[in-house]
Structure formats: C-alpha cells, structure tokens
Amino acid sequence: MAAEPSGKPHVLIVGGGFAGLHCAKELAKADVDITLADRQNHHLFQPLLYQVATAVLSPADIASPIRRILRNQSNTRVVLAKLTDVDLDNQRGFFPNAELPYDYLVLATGATHSYFGRDDWAELAPGLKTIDDALEIRRQVLLAYEAAEWEADEQSRQAKLTFVVVGGGPTGVELAGALKEIALQAIPKDFRHIDTTTAQVMLVEAGDRLLAALPEKLGRRAQRDLEKMGVQVKLNSAVTEICAGSVHIGEQVVPVENVIWAAGVRGSKIAEKFDAELDRSGRIKVANDLSLPKHPNVFVAGDLAHIVDPKTGAPVPGVAPAAMQMGRHVANQIKRELKKSNSARQLFRYRDKGGMATIGRNRAVATIAGLNFSGIFAWWVWSLVHIIPLIDFRSKLSVIFSWVWSYFSLSKNARLITGRRKMQVKSALGRVAED
Amino acid sequence: MAAEPSGKPHVLIVGGGFAGLHCAKELAKADVDITLADRQNHHLFQPLLYQVATAVLSPADIASPIRRILRNQSNTRVVLAKLTDVDLDNQRGFFPNAELPYDYLVLATGATHSYFGRDDWAELAPGLKTIDDALEIRRQVLLAYEAAEWEADEQSRQAKLTFVVVGGGPTGVELAGALKEIALQAIPKDFRHIDTTTAQVMLVEAGDRLLAALPEKLGRRAQRDLEKMGVQVKLNSAVTEICAGSVHIGEQVVPVENVIWAAGVRGSKIAEKFDAELDRSGRIKVANDLSLPKHPNVFVAGDLAHIVDPKTGAPVPGVAPAAMQMGRHVANQIKRELKKSNSARQLFRYRDKGGMATIGRNRAVATIAGLNFSGIFAWWVWSLVHIIPLIDFRSKLSVIFSWVWSYFSLSKNARLITGRRKMQVKSALGRVAED
C-alpha cells in the first residue's frame, strides 16, 4: 500500500493517542495526505483506564476505533501497523509489510511502563497502559478473592488478600483507592468464607509524598484520605525485590500475591532509531518547536517528547493535556510551513491547566489555575473533567450511566474473569480455573 | 474447604448456566446447604453472545458474577472450580484442590462445540460458547478488514473479505446476518482502499433448510431475508475440509480467511465419568425425572441432558428455556424428597414456548404458542424476549441503550481488537499487530 499519488505533501503520523489524534484532527482542512498508523485499532482514553482494571467500566466505554473517529476526515487514512524502523535521510517509515515515504513524520508512540532494569518483574507486577493490561489486572484482582475463598491456610489467605500498588502518582493513588473500595463496598456480601473488608491495600512510593506533580498540600490530603479509607501509604519506600508470593520494601518482606506496577515510564523503543539524544527515561530530547534536532520535518509529540518548560525549568509532564497541545502545535507548524506565508517555527509553550486525582467516592484532589480543591467538590470537578473530553457522545452517556449506577449501588459492574494468560498458570487458582 | 458441618443435606450444583442457576434459585428457601461450582466466575446470557462477537455489546452487558447473583441467598456458596472427577458410590465430587461430599449432585455443565472428530479445525474455525470465544471472533472479524485494507493482491483481498459461517441454526443465522450488517452499514465509511460492502458472507448448512428447530415456513423466510441482505445461503452443503486460506464445501474450494463454526454441539467431557449411557453428541441419557439411571440422587440438567419429549418423540432441544425448566424441575424433586410428604419423583415435562432467531435490523422469525411471525413484529418480539430474562436491571438498561444506539446510528460500538492469541500469529496481519 503506497502513499496516494496525489502529489500533496504526505504527513505520516505514528500513534493514535492524544498527541497523534489531535495532530491529525488539526490538519483536517490542510491540503495534505495524512496516514495515521497505530499498532492498536483504537484510541484509548487512558485517564480512565484504571476504572477498567477495577471493574467499573467496560473497555468499549473508553476506547473507539481510530478509523471511526476519523471516518469523515477525507484527507486521512488509518492503518493498523507498527513502525519498525525509519530512514531519516530518505524520509521513509518502515512497517512489517510496507514502507511509506513521508514529507513530514510525527512520532507520537508514547511511553510504556519501566521496571528500572528489572524486566523480570513485569510478569509478577503488571502495569497499566493498554486495555489488555487493564483486563489482566482486573482478572488477577478478582482471582485473588476467589483463591482466598478456597484457601484453608490463614497466612496464605492473608497474602492473597493483600494488594501492593507501587508508585504514588495519579494512577497509583486512583488504583489504591479503587481497590480498597472493592474490598469494602462492592463485594463483602458475595463471599461466605472470607471477610473481604480485611483485605489490605498498600501504596508504596519511593519519594517523600504522593502526587509529586501536584502541590504538596494536595499530596498530603490524598494521603490522609487514602489512610482514612484504610489504605496503608508507605512513603520513602523503595521496592527492592518482587518474588512470587512476596515483595521486599526496603528491608521489610511483605507476603503478598498481588502487586501492581504504577511506578516508572519509559519512552517507546522506536525512539532509539531516531538518531537523537534520549533522556534517562528513553524519551527524545526535542528542539523547542518539538522537531527532531537535525531533522526539521520530523516531530515528536506526546509522552515520548522530552522538552523543558521554560516557565518552570522542569520537563513538560506526560499527561493528556500536554499531549494534545503538542499534537496541535505540530500540526500548526506544518500548516504554516505549507502556506509559506510565515514559515518560521514557533516555540512550543505548555499551558498547564492543573492536575487532579480521584481517591474514592466523593474524594478527590485537584489544582486548577493555581487554586487547590479537595473533597466532594474536587470529586465533581474530576468527574466532569473526565467526561467532557471522552471521544464521542455515546461513550459519555455510557460512562455517566456506569458511574451513576456504581455511585448509588456501590457495585462494580464489570467483574468478569476472562482471558487465559501466562499469569493464570502461576496464580494459586491456575489449576482450578483452567480448561 | 469442606462442606459446612451444619448437618443439613448438601446439594452440589456443578455449572452456573441457566440450568444450574435456576436450580439454585429454586432451592433458595430449602433447608439445605448448596455449593454452586463453575469454572467461570460469571453466568452468561448465551442467546446474546453473538452480539459480543459482532461488536454490538460488551461482555459485561450479558454476564454477571455468579456470586453476585446469589449474594443474598444465604444457604448457597459459590466456588470458582472445575469438577474433574466424581465418586458416585461414596458421593464425592473432586476439584483440583478439594473434594466435596454431596447428598445431591446436579450436573449442569452444558455443552461445547463439536467439530465432528476434526478438532484440528478448532483453530481455523472458532466456535461461540464463551466470552473468550466471542472476543476472539470479534478480533478476527475486525482484523480481517484491517488486513484487507493493506492487501495489494486482489485475490487475497477477496479471501480476507469473505466470511463463512458453518451451521444454519439460530447462532449461524444470527451471526451471518450481523456480519453482513457490519459490512453494509457499520464500517463502509471507515475504510479508504476497500469497499466493505463487497464483503461476502456465506452461510453453509448440511441439511436442506435453515433453523431446523422452527417450522419450515420460518426457515424459508429466514433464508429469503438473509438472501435479500446479500448473504449467500448454501443448503445441503457439507464442509469437508478447512485449511488456512480456504474451505472445502462439497467439491467446491472457496478461498476464505474467516470461518466461524456454529455447527455441532457436544456434551461436556465430564459426562464420561458418570457411568451412564451417552448419546452420539456425548450427552447423558437421563431417566424421565432427569436423574442418572442407577443413581437417583444425581441429576443432569440443561444442555448435557438427553431426554426424549414424549409429546414430539424428539429430544428436548438444548435451549435456554429448556435448561431453566430442567433446573427448576430438579430443585423441586429435591425439595419434595426432603419434605418426605411426597417423595415419588415427577416426570420432567418440557413446555415448548416456541423459538426465534433475528436476522438483522427489523427482521426476525418467531414461533410462539403455535403461531408464526416474521418481519418487524417478530423482531420486536425477539428483542423483548431477550431483554426480559437478562439477569439484572442494570444489564437490561445497558443492552437497551446499546440496541437503541446501534439501531439509529447503524454503528457497532464495541469494535475493539484486544487480546493476543495463538490465532493472531496465523492471521495475515500477525506481524503487523504484534508487539
């Protein structure tokens, strides 16, 4: 499948996340041919992914086929394919069964989780980046209770009823809160032998506070709220080893069968092929217009781009609003250049709109335009802010419906154990649940 | 985990489908201890499973955790476990890490698909019995279009755009109709290189008509409706071979990359351990009270039971209403026996409430109380009949919402390619979509 021989400049966008998708949309009216390639067929609203992992939402509530989103954008075609290599000099991107020439390349392949060199932990402590990740975590959490219900030995049962979340950023905080809600509210009446309210949830953070990207006050508030719910928050605590059945936190060995990884991120591997300097997390250090140094027709947008915000002196954070802004910025540079009226590149300026994290029912923390909020008001703001940008009207309705339902019923609707993965064989229940 | 030492009779129900669940519910007030064991954690509303496979519904819309359904039934505990063996003389059921004694055993493990001795076809022609099956079919159907969009060779592209459904019962008819709707209505605007309306759907049936369980008139009507939509219906046609890339229908070799199996069913394997005569499909020939010959305290209910309906002389069909009736019948026999007022067993009498199949938007066929319906009225009846028995109010709302939405938007909402299975490697797109 070659590029259309239309003669128009060809913009190759790799990645259909917030950056890639918003870049494509901003180019809707431009006189270019766009190819958007992603190795998944769907755009994912990642900020709500933890709710799939904790059985509140179904995958289809927060994911839509990319080609459906762009169906009416006639200058754009969507392909399901993974970029495997690039030839920057000859301007060609390589895919497993095709190569595509480009005039502009926008690399927006994002980040994945990083185990800080301990990739062997990946099987024991799954991370949360894709729908498959979320379904795997959901599966393990639900299986843990099932296994505990069978378990005769008190000590083993307690290990099965212990959940350790590694990493005190928004994902870790939100997962820990939701896991505690499951134990306290959603399932106690469903089990006969175990008291699910005794399940322990531990949130482990290497730094001295939670939510490092938000004001310190909010990090403390989130910690107090979590502790009120019964979550054990362990600050200044590094995970030094993860084995089947236990996790080492500093010197302490905690017997636990469920570990979830929400700690490090690492730029996607393809970055190494781009002849550019990477930061410690494998993200590409871009020029201040988001282009690749030495290759002005290649841009990097979203979580994969490392750029320092001159206002704060810190790198622009890997959050959805930053990715959208970068995607649109790149699109605008391309449009300006094609018009030739004003081809000087503009600097990318990050507009920090604040940040937030939800902790549980009626509990959240948020900072917006320099103002800090917490409690039920922050929770309402959090809910609104996460409904509005959902990609289509149907998703909005469906998510609202699920939230209203779980709010009043205290139940989690999508408690399905599906899939049959490697992990299952290792779980205590593997033999039971297998075919 | 042993049975409770309550001294009450212990009823062990194996299988949480329609038969097992309705048996347990009918025993809600009985003075017994009940254990319901299933190898899945969820009860599945199988009549709508094809809508998960065709991206209309999400799994959580039609499946609920069994322990949630029975949470308020205090005499019942639910365990996630697969029955591996039974000792009929000593009245014990064996599970991978436990054995449970029983006073009554209700075997309701249902049926799976049968490839008539060609189990090697399973990988090439997936069947539809579980949520995982449905997600795998959804995945393959969606990947077929993605692969076709990349494919330069005209002949290979046509093979990727051909879907063969084997078996002209309700599942086959409903799948064929829904697959054609996807091609004609849901996705044409989403692709740039292929015309999805040229996708071919072929429904292959060995017998001389569709929907053999319904009146002949309705089978003919379903055929006409499918043909009007563009489905090729091939009657008196046996599939003699399935290879990667083609299927042999009699003497004809059809190049096709997508085959779905909706033909034979076979009783679940555990039946072989029950010291009873099996029919050709591996179902247990039960006594006329549904008990196991020679073992009156063991019952078989649902799809696994073979019993001849004296009214028609034909076996009771493997449909949801029959399974529910059997489950309740068994529960009533147990209750009568425990009351000792009247311990003589009652014969099971199947009350045939009719049957139906939907073909597409506004098209269905139904027979109820001897009256035949087709067209839009039958379609409304079909919709109502499939909403009412959904297990909880939330599922009903959610399914109604999805149906109303797809009815007016002509779209299929859950078009997600997720999971990473064996099959993927074999698909033309395997290399593209893999990590």
CATH topology tier name of the domain at 116-263 and 415-430 in chain A: FAD/NAD(P)-binding domain
Average pLDDT of chain A: 92
**Neighbour order of strands in the largest sheet of chain A:** 5-2-1-9-21-20
Share of β-strand residues of chain A: 15-25%
CATH class identity of the domain at 116-263 and 415-430 in chain A: Alpha Beta
- Per DSSP, the total helix count of chain A is 13
Class per helix and strand makeup of chain A: alpha/beta
Tell me the quaternary state. homodimer
Strands of chain A, count: 25
Identify the CATH architecture of the domain at 116-263 and 415-430 in chain A. Answer: 3-Layer(bba) Sandwich
Quick one: overall form of chain A?
elongated
Query: What distance separates the N and C termini of chain A?
Result: 41 Å
Summarize the main sheet of chain A. Answer: 6 strands, mixed
Helix content of chain A: 25-40%
